[in-house]
Amino acid sequence: MNRLSFVALGLSLLATPVLAQSAPGSSTVSLTFDTGAQTGAVMVALYDSEASYESGRPVGSARIDVAAGQRTATFNDLPAGDYAAKAFHDVDGNGEMATNPFGMPTEPYAFSNNAVGNMGPARWDRANFAVEGDVAQTIVIR
């Protein structure tokens, strides 16, 4: 995943509130993260289209305090449709994705469906999942 993608993710996480409680007839997505380290936080962004996934404009975001024992982000009041998530484990808790001098991530990251990218983020067609009603996924942060 390139540095620009993670910078966009970080900025969008700061600007987008987590969605509130579900309304009748709407859907909920619960994403549980399996992390290696017990420090820092998982930063997650949820997207509702390939265009938003590529542009870094999520429909919701969350910060999960791993150090406090939290593991799950829940997004409520979602209309039925296709969604995908990007996440990274901010192990050092500084609020940013750490990268090496070449812009490659040095902190763990993951995508919905446990999709894997090839020399960059996982593509939408691998990471998206259908939402109609309540959906739960466990994502392993690598």
Verbal overview:
By secondary structure, this protein is of the alpha+beta class. Strands 2, 3, 5, 6 and 7 form a 5-stranded antiparallel sheet that branches. Strands 4-1-8 form a 3-stranded mixed sheet, with no helix packed on it. About 8% of the residues have low confidence. The radius of gyration is 14 Å and the shape is globular. It starts with a helix and ends with a strand. It contains 3 helices and 8 strands. 16% of the residues lie in helices and 36% in strands.
List the helices and strands and how they pair.
Layout: H1 3-15, E1 27-34, E2 41-47, H2 50-55, E3 60-65, E4 72-78, E5 81-90, E6 109-111, H3 124-127, E7 129-131, E8 134-140
Parallel strand pairs: 1-8
Antiparallel strand pairs: 1-4, 2-3, 2-5, 5-6, 5-7
